[in-house]
Amino acid sequence: MTEQARPSFIGARVKRLEDPRLLRGHGRYVADVRLPGALEVAFVRSEMPHADITAVDAGAAREHPGVVRVLTGSDELVAGREIRGDWRGEIWQTSAQPALAGDRVRFVGQPIAAVVATSRYVAEDAASLVVADYRELQPLTSARASLSDGAPLLHEGWTRNFFRHSHFLGGDPDAAFAAADGVLELRTATQRQTGMPLETRGCVADYDVVSGSLTVWMTNQMPSVVRTSLADVLGVEENRVRVVAPDIGGGFGVKAYLYPEDVVVCLLAMELGRPVRWIEDRREHLLAAIHARQQEHRVQVAYRADGKVLAIRAEVLVDSGAFSVHPWTAGLEAGNALSLLPGPYTIGDYECDAYAVATNKSPFGPVRGVARPAAALSTERAMDQVARATGLDPIEVRRRNLIDARDCPYTTVTGNLIDSASFQEALDRLCEVADYPQLRRQQAEAREAGRLLGIGVACYAEQGASGIHEYLRRGMPTIFGYETALVRMDPSGKVLVEVTTHSHGQGHETTIAQVVATRLQVPLQDVRVVYGDTSRMPYGMGTFGSRSIVMAGGAASAAADKVRLKLEQFAAHLLEISADDLETVDGAVRAKGAPFRSIPISELARAAYHQPHRLPQGMQPLLEAVSTYDTERGTGTWTNACHLALVELDPGLGLLDVQKYVVVHDCGVIVNPTIVEGQLHGGIAHGIGGALLEELVYDEWGQPLSTTFMDYLLPSATEVPRIEAHHIETPSPFSATGSKGMGEGGAIAPGPVLAAALEDALRPLGEVVVTELPLTPERVLRYVDEARGAAADASGDR
Amino acid sequence: MKPASFEYVTARTVEEAVRALADSEGEGKCLAGGQSLVPLMNFRLARPPLLVDLGQVDELRQLRHDDDGSLVVGALVTHREVAGSPLIAERVPLLAEAAREVGHAAIRNRGTIGGSFAHADPVAELPCVGLTLDAEIVAAGPHRRRTIAAADFFQGPFTTALAADEVLVEIRFPASGAERSGWAFCELARRRGDLAVVGVAAQLERRGQRLSARIGLAGVAGRPVRAVAAEAGLSGATPDAASFRAAGEAVAASLAPPSDIHGSAALRRRVASVLTERALERAARRLEAA
Ligand SMILES: Cc1cc2nc3c(=O)[nH]c(=O)nc-3n(C[C@H](O)[C@H](O)[C@H](O)COP(=O)(O)OP(=O)(O)OC[C@H]3O[C@@H](n4cnc5c(N)ncnc54)[C@H](O)[C@@H]3O)c2cc1C
Hints:
- The complex is a heterodimer.
- Chain A has 20 helices and 31 strands.
- By secondary structure, chain A is an alpha+beta fold.
- Among the domains of chain A are: about 20-25 and about 480-630, Aldehyde oxidase/xanthine dehydrogenase, molybdopterin binding domain (Aldehyde Oxidoreductase, domain 4, 2-Layer Sandwich); about 140-400, Aldehyde Oxidoreductase, domain 4 (2-Layer Sandwich), CATH 3.30.365.10.
- Chain A is globular.
- Chain A starts with 18 loop residues before the first helix and ends with a helix.
- Chain B has three domains: about 5-55, Uridine Diphospho-n-acetylenolpyruvylglucosamine Reductase, domain 2, CATH 3.30.43.10; about 60-175, Uridine Diphospho-n-acetylenolpyruvylglucosamine Reductase, domain 3, CATH 3.30.465.10; about 180-290, 2-Layer Sandwich (Enolase-like, domain 1), CATH 3.30.390.50.
- Chain B is globular, with a radius of gyration of 19 Å.
- In chain B, about 50% of the residues are buried.
- Classes of the chains: A alpha+beta, B alpha+beta.
- Chains A and B meet through helix 3 and helix 20 of A and helix 12 of B.
């Protein structure tokens, strides 16, 4: 039998195995952890963006009936408990976020006290009795303000208000600019947005005084890593800390941190010897879970008359908030923007200055897409401006600049190694499946009738599954370079897989089972995938950075291979055939070319455990294996995609109606198309939120204004269009399964796509350059006026 | 986001509810659909020590027309009932159209017209329609029932003429007396189901050869307002595109709206003008079809 004839679950539209549990409401989340005697915490949070705390009066709160403990920032228990995330690069200034602020607050929402009581209701009653006095300091509410001369310094020992500054120079931009036919400049801006999981953050800590061991249930995407962080900050031996991340209702990056609240809850449980619980409410989430996305770019582009982009110079300012986060650091976003701004194009001459600027806003961190949405906004808007300047179609300009897939593995100007891709093919497919010429005709007809239709496109390369090489290069303090899987076949031949990634929407219970069932040639329903409990699982990194199918899939695949090899060696001994002449197919190990000479896997498994005397000399009974995995060069995988949207603009109200959204997507070998499409749809919804709706607004005094769902607008079913997705599968040469990471990508393109579509829709009114997101009615109407003004100016000139 | 502690009582009649409010020295609050009050309590922006649940007061569920031709809508009639009632569709279709713009299905199932009027959110649709159609609000207090004109009822943001010990019983929409009418409610909301940034209610009425217009606006002041100048400009005019554009301009000129993160004053003024024009156009089409 040939390799292909083996039953394979790779590529099958298997229904998600976790769904019967989750959809029936049987998921068990942190808030479902109910321990006898548990106390609840309410945090008192700073109302000032920047101030010295002169006094905190917690007297009345302590007297309140039902209150067990009131902890303030000056309490011994939290002294020196600080969270740090230090980037390992040249120009870096550190910050230390206290578990509770004692003497100074640096953003509205920063915890300053914790009230522990018999219920959350009582805790909130008492929390409202805690009174803090402040001496106000000048708040810094924008990156520009923070960098301006004379701005007060946000942290001790700093010389200017940034965490990180990096300069990059590749090729010879000066020469390229000098030789260019044209140069254009853009200033783009994305606002604060964040990940908004249905389930907010939460933490339940239980300390066993007798054994000195601490169990923490928390909403965390990286249970192993956060266990180490907790042990470090709490001073508890790590072998006495157990972190359980049970079912989690979405993460998007915001649950991949150690937060001050987590530290406080653990300290209180240890001090009080009773379980302590905190479930974040939505207002807290909007105030104090990390924020993301806010960047300002100044970009200069040198191009040739034939549409070739020669060089880019860029300045990137990331509004990184008040503290550097753990473990990602405030440096990651700025570094990613710098690294990814040239996009999927053959731009050889590039210079960039990137700053992670400190401001008096909530700390900032990686969220689905990490800097790529802002980087792509600049790159893709630049492509569109080049198209306009050269009179070429935006599609054609991209075609002339995209990396040729035949040159992969391709090293970009910033040193990214693109493993394999289908950039040109994807763009051609997009034009074909969206019927681009027909869309242009439709647009022309609509314009005749006075309607404003616009078309936008964007291309991107999504870096995923970053490994040891990549995280080293990025200067991360922790090198998230591998994942681990344990594969255990029991005496019945059933398989338990423990992975160190965490599934909170990604469907690992299904996809990892598909990989393992294929490697072991057992039925899919015989494979159970679990995760999230550090007392059971081996050590690994977690879920982030579009990595799970590659990293956990690779580890599970390798561990499964070890088990299969052992089964084959055992069978070789029993059948008296060389293991080389055996193969495992469809539930049995059998002789190649003589399939009747076979032993079912279930029989081998039972014998391996219960009849150890039948094992060959020196073979140990158990059928289990642990493997770690990193991609072949530790450089990860690159998914590529092109998005297209057709929108209609209502120029009276400033509303965009997205009428068509088409994606051509290549993430290598697809393990489960339904899950890939689900991730894509979710990512695009997230991206549409950032493009049209979501904005965490701060006023000029540093007060956050988007603290409820009436103000922070998420896209809902009525705002997300039908998404048409088409796939190309270019296998990755660097990953075990040929798959590539793809969980974040959907969120990258909608911003530039919709900005381009608006600009295109406005064309009959006049020429403008759309550079600022989200496209709220306010901004859209400003562009409408600008377009009309531009047209008026132009006609005035004539 | 947990409310402060409160007492809870269920009233079975309007009189019982009024007594409970009076006994709480005006500190108690009626609970109708809870779609505005409960969120306020969770944010602790409202801390009533007593909630008087109106849910079992049958009198408040009435929906009927009176001998004088006016339509009477009980305080507890839900947005969904308003949106779907054949009686309302026939008598005050503008109200039904506006109710469809209120929140999402789940909110319309619970939220009530009385709650919406008593809450008096300046961007709310139904109060705007109430003002536009010169509705009357019937309130019951410890000593008597009284009728308040919509123009006097809405006083400012979240402020009405209701006394602390009064229960809103019903809302009366007087018969217009027009032979034919056309209506429309248009709004700008950031997402479908969101509170409006600006809403416009318009009704064109024909009596013999005479045309008159009613235009009400939400989201442009601390309470719903009538666009008096625009209404006057349209009275007697030929309903055509030019007159509607002029009405829109008149609306914009008359307003000094507030700003918030969903829309600056300038945006509201501009959008009010656009929506007025659109609402009048749609109303005119319906008038013609009538
Ligand atoms: C997500 C969401 C979206 C929404 N969108 C919209 C929208 O687009 N447009 C809109 O207009 N509204 C919207 N609302 C609010 C909704 O319409 C409410 O239903 C309405 O404002 C209040 O009605 P209620 O019956 O829920 O009143 P409650 O919340 O029970 O009460 C509101 C106030 O009115 C008082 N009250 C209620 N009934 C009486 C009475 N009979 N006599 C005296 N006082 C009384 C209460 O004491 C309280 O002060 C939305 C709400 C939500 C949660």
